[in-house]
Write a structure and sequence with these properties.
Blueprint lengths: L14 E6 L3 H12 L4 E4 L11 E2 L9 E2 H14 L3 E3 L3 E6 L6 E5 L5 E8 L18 E6 L2 E6 L15 E3 L10 H22 L14 E2 L10 H11 L8 H16 L2 E2 L1 H16 L4 H14 L1
Parallel strand pairs: 1-2, 1-8, 2-5, 8-11, 12-13
Antiparallel strand pairs: 3-4, 6-7, 7-8, 9-10
Helix pairs in contact: 1-2, 1-3
Length: about 300
């Protein structure tokens, strides 16, 4: 189940979000934008630093390590389950769309596509972004072996992924900790939440109620007070700033949509059990069949 409050796509563009890079950063970002209902496509055919790793042994949740092929299968499966489309094509250029809003994404083999927002989640060079910003230094010059080389400025984006170019976000795992896959995934998540909250503000949510989280809770935690929609209505209205400019009808529409979204995050015991079983079965799809059969025989022998 998505944690979205809407699945409407901006009809002026092919996609709400284009993500460049299908590693941990890009797929983590896609999981969050996709689950919110944003039409998201991930382009993944560039150089990926994680593919140079032999076996990943420090990614949380895999105590004996995980090979890169299996990890890629899992993260791509997760992104697609969240609603993302993964396209094996190389992004060559990124230009402003006519009118100044959104982007035209040029790819190596397919036709160009348009996107309302772009998340750059590739760690190498960022050459495809060249020319987007004429006022701020996007690339910096370094000297190496007596020759000058230009590289994407690792400090170009803010901590939340925003950049001087409106609607361009950087989820590339730069910096001292950026070489760790788990940090890359965290970076992608942080930037995706920035994007989702920008969308919520654009759709009319005032700042105090534009914040976003995506997590499921047991229905048992929903006590009598908070199972009452009137309590949620009171909570929503109390958080609105005094100077909000929402008309009554628009305020009520946003409020009811937000209440629906929040109540949908509470799951019954039966739904939790069903999701746990489904999750375990999905994991088995990525495990070698011979190992599954071997484990089954061992279990049978023990019994």
């Amino acid at each position: 189940m998505s944690a979205s409050d809407t699945t409407d796509t901006d009809a002026a563009f092919d996609h709400d979000v284009v993500i460049v890079g299908g590693g941990p950063a890009g797929c983590a970002a896609g999981v969050f934008t996709g689950r919110y209902g944003l039409d998201t496509v991930i382009f993944d055919r560039g150089r990926s630093s994680i593919q140079r790793c032999a076996v990943l042994e420090n990614y949380l949740g895999f105590p004996a390590g995980i090979d890169i092929e299996t990890l890629y299968g899992l993260i791509h499966d997760h992104a697609e389950e969240a609603g993302c489309e993964i396209v094996p094509d190389f992004v060559e250029s990124l230009e402003r769309a006519d009118g100044g809003d959104g982007f035209v994404v040029g790819v190596q083999e397919g036709e160009p596509v348009t996107a309302r927002r772009v998340i750059a989640a590739t760690r190498y060079d960022g050459e495809y972004m060249r020319g987007l910003d004429d006022e701020t230094v996007m690339f910096e010059t370094h000297e190496h072996d007596g020759e000058e080389h230009e590289h994407f400025d690792k400090g170009y984006a803010e901590g939340d992924g925003t950049t001087p170019v409106e609607d361009l976000f950087i989820a590339s795992p730069y910096g001292a900790t950026g070489y760790q896959a788990s940090m890359a995934a965290g970076r992608g998540t942080r930037v995706a939440i920035t994007v989702v909250e920008a969308v919520r503000r654009e759709r009319g949510y005032p700042e105090p109620v534009a914040n976003y989280y995506d997590w499921m809770r047991p229905e048992a935690e929903l006590d009598e007070e908070w199972s009452d929609r009137d309590r949620w209505r009171e909570y929503f209205d109390d958080r609105l700033p005094d100077d909000h400019d929402l008309e009554d009808e628009g305020r009520r529409e946003l409020r009811e949509r937000e209440i629906d979204r929040r109540l949908a995050t509470y799951l019954s015991d039966d739904e939790i059990d069903a999701r746990v079983e489904r999750g375990h079965k999905r994991l088995l799809e990525h495990v070698d069949d011979d190992l599954i059969l071997e484990a089954a025989r061992e279990i049978e022998a023990e019994e």
